[in-house]
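Record 1 of the preview.
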Amino acid sequence: MSDQADLYKQVSIGQHLAGVELIDQLALRPGDSVLDIGSGTGNLTAIMAEKIGSTGCVYAIEPDSARCCLAKKQFVNDNIIWFPGDLAAF
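->
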């Protein structure tokens, strides 16, 4: 795993708080589908997955393979589909 992915996870607190506010504004409901572009290490992705429940799906795209790998290991969730790579690959 990349040291940069771990560092990103540690220093992205401010970005995380802003992301939580944005997620709240989305008013996600069970069964919704979400496209998360630039999912990073998955912290916000996991929050969205919880809000939409098992009947919804989060499609998480992350171009940095180390961040995507870290997210997959940290958040094993049936309603998150991880796509390592850029948006064009999706």
